[in-house]
């Protein structure tokens, strides 16, 4: 038959073990949150870089468009046609980069660790029971 002293010692050890495990779970959830935020920040950064590249290329598009208009007025048909084709290619490239940038920005926002928050809520509910 267990004595009162061994029961309290066992209970204390159990409480200590539960506290250590809860601390470990919280630490793991914080790591998960950090990894999730890091992934979203990288995605947001790539999206911003793609969008910035698209804006820079749009300046080139504008420059080539004006060069095409000037060449069309000043020279033969073949020169302005070549400049116009270059403008079209740059515009298509800017459109693709802009689209990629938009996708990356959408996938990175909001930079909230949704999975970690969900896991923390589940853990809190489990500990309350």
Q: Secondary structure elements and their pairing?
A:
Blueprint: H1 4-74, H2 77-108, H3 114-128
Helix pairs in contact: 1-2, 1-3
Please name the defining characteristics of this protein.
129 residues, mainly alpha
Write a structural description.
The protein is an all-alpha fold and 129 residues long. 91% of the residues lie in helices and 0% in strands. The protein is built from three helices and no strands. It has helices at 4-74, 77-108, 114-128. It is rod-shaped and about 95 Å long. The model has no long low-confidence stretch (mean pLDDT 80).
State the major sheet: none
**Helical percent range?**
over 70%
- Return residue spans where pLDDT drops below 50 for at least 5 consecutive residues: none
What gyration radius follows from the Cα positions, in whole Å?
30 Å
Structural class from helices and strands?
mainly alpha
Q: What is the count of DSSP helices, taking H or I runs of 4+ residues?
A: 3
Distance between the termini: 30 Å
* Helix and strand sequence: HHH
Shape: rod-shaped
As a percent range, the share of strand residues is: under 5%
Tally the beta strands: 0
Q: Gist?
A:
The chain is mainly alpha-helical and 129 residues long. 91% of the residues lie in helices and 0% in strands.
């Amino acid at each position: 038959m267990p004595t009162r002293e061994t029961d309290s010692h066992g209970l204390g050890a159990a409480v200590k073990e539960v506290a250590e495990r809860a601390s470990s779970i919280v630490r793991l959830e914080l790591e998960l949150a950090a990894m999730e935020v890091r992934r979203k920040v990288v995605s947001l950064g790539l999206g911003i870089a793609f969008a910035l590249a698209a804006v820079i290329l749009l300046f080139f598009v504008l420059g080539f468009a004006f060069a095409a208009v000037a060449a069309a007025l000043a020279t033969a048909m073949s020169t302005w046609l070549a400049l116009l084709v270059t403008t079209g290619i740059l515009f298509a490239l800017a459109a693709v980069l802009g689209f990629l940038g938009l996708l990356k920005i959408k996938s990175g926002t909001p930079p909230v660790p949704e999975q970690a928050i969900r896991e923390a809520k589940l853990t809190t509910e489990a500990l309350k029971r």
